[in-house]
Amino acid sequence: MRVALLLLGFGHVGRRFVHLLEEQRAVLDAAGVTPVVVGIATGRHGSVCLDAGLDAARLAREVAGGGAVGPTPSAHTADQLIARLAALDAEVRVVVETTPLVIESGEPAISHVRQALRAGAHVVSANKGPVAHAYDDLAAEAQRAGREFLFEGAVMDGIPVFNLVRETMPGVTVLGFRGVVNSTTNHILTAMEQGEPFASALARMQAAGVAEADPSLDVDGWDAAAKVAAMANVWMGAGITPQAVARTGIGPADAGWAREAVARGHHLKLVAYGQRRREAFSTKKPPDVFVTVGLEELEADDPLAQLDGQANALELHTDLLGRVVITQRDGGLEKTAYALFSDLMRIVGQERKDVGRLFR
Ligand SMILES: NC(=O)c1ccc[n+]([C@@H]2O[C@H](COP(=O)([O-])OP(=O)(O)OC[C@H]3O[C@@H](n4cnc5c(N)ncnc54)[C@H](OP(=O)(O)O)[C@@H]3O)[C@@H](O)[C@H]2O)c1
Q1: Are residues 220 and 91 in the same domain?
Q2: Same-domain pairing of 84 and 7
Q3: What local confidence, expressed as pLDDT, does residue 330 receive?
Q4: Same domain for 102 and 218?
Q5: For position 124, which CATH number holds?
Q6: Both 225 and 122 in a single domain?
Q7: Is the confidence at residue 360, as pLDDT, over 80?
Q8: Which of 17, 66, 179, 276 shows a CA-CA span of 20 to 30 A to 229?
Q9: The pLDDT value given to residue 195
Q10: Which residues does ligand 1 sit against, CB inside 6 Å?
Q11: For position 90, what pLDDT does the model report?
């Protein structure tokens, strides 16, 4: 099955995804899946398209080395590339959206997702913006179009959070959640517990490509707030934006608190929290949710307290299964790339009607 891919965004995640496709070529071949990158759009590094397929891994190396994918300013807009994808002769068309999070509006990613769905393409995204700002609209758009809008990489990299609930918990209602969901701040807090300065710990996350393009989104709690909004929108029908989340971040001044917490046998964590306040079942209104991001000193036996470095964890509070905790021990770019890969495979499986059997 030929799967035509249009990459909107070709930064750390988009490039790692391309390399993952190369690394998994034998597995994909065995499953009869041939992904072909037919277009790439960036912000400042040009754009390129070729119906027969680009050498995306080579372009990824060139961009990583300071080059561009095509002439700048870009020869094609995202809309033009989406239209071209729609006209292509391919069994499956997928737009891979990995532009940066724009916390104020979720754009241009929301428009990218909407345009792609309207053009008959599926969408996979690691960008929290569309889910955190416009989930209901985009889910309805996907349903109208008969296409998938999947975003497993938006929360906890490649760890299946949305898939876990959707695929394995039929009939379960998520009543609430709490988690450590931002790798950059958890890494900084862990480093400050051990006496390392805030700035050098942050610099390490920037060098690793894990911090957001604008790192204040991480340290001011915005990234976590966007994840809270995404989860509340998907699981609770909350219809909120990140701006509705009561939020505090972390700063160099928290180093003392982090060390004192350890001396008390505790750990200081940036905890993301969402809870239904009013049962949705008895009313036609969307459920009212209590949503926060803030620093908390956690006792050592709390499952969130033991997370070092880039580790993340999420505790779901459910009606039928009680509390369920899922932990990501090793976060990182390659796991976010895997989230896109797993979403892509889900789409292929659905198109071929052999979902779940592709890699057995
Ligand atoms: N990095 C992680 O570990 C991680 C983990 C989970 C989720 N995410 C999410 O994944 C997304 C991508 O992250 P990243 O680390 O890859 O970011 P990044 O390195 O900053 O890359 C963003 C890419 O988007 C391009 N871009 C910017 N504006 C664009 C536009 N209007 N149209 C098309 N392309 C545009 C950029 O091009 P230029 O460079 O030319 O401007 C760049 O290629 C973000 O939404 C982020 O929140 C990242």
Answers
A1: no
A2: yes
A3: 87
A4: no
A5: 3.40.50.720
A6: no
A7: no
A8: 17
A9: 95
A10: 8-14, 41-45, 78, 98-101, 108, 126-128, 153, 157, 209-210, 212-213, 333, 336
A11: 87
pLDDT, tens only, 78-120: 999 999 999 998 889 999 999 999 999 999 999 999 999 999 9
For 132-151, letters b (16+ CB in 10 Å) and e give: bbbbeebeebbeebebbbbb
**Residues 105 and 19 placed together within one structural domain of the fold:** yes
Helices (H), the chain: 12-23, 25-31, 56-64, 78-87, 109-118, 128-145, 162-168, 183-193, 198-207, 216-219, 222-236, 255-263, 333-352
The amino acid present at 262, given as its one-letter code, is: V
Residue 279 clears pLDDT 90, i.e. is over it: no
Helix (H, G, I), strand (E, B) or coil at 308: coil
C-alpha 107 chain-centroid distance: 15
Would residue 12 count as lying in a domain?
yes
Point out the ligand 1 atom lying closest to the alpha carbon of residue 99. 24
The answer to whether position 360 is within a domain reads no
- CATH for 323: 3.30.360.10
Query: What is the pLDDT averaged over residues 18-24?
Result: 97
Q: Supply the pLDDT for residue 304.
A: 97
Model pLDDT, residue 187: 96
Q: What confidence category does residue 2 fall into, taking pLDDT thresholds of 50, 70 and 90?
A: very high
Contact 33, 3 (CB under 8 A): yes
**Are 145 and 117 a contacting pair, CB within 8 Å?**
yes
What is the three-class DSSP state of 312? strand
Compute the CA torsion angle 356, 124, 5, 337 (nearest 10 deg): -80
Does residue 357 carry a pLDDT above 70? no
Q: Domain containing 35: what range?
A: 2-157+335-352
Residue 282 has pLDDT above 60, yes or no: no
Pocket test for ligand 1, best of 6, 8, 10, 13 (most atoms within 8 A of CB): 13
Q: How far is the CA of 213 from the centre of ligand 1 (A)?
A: 7
Rounded Cα gap, residues 159 and 312, in angstroms: 9
Q: How many domains are contained in the chain?
A: 2
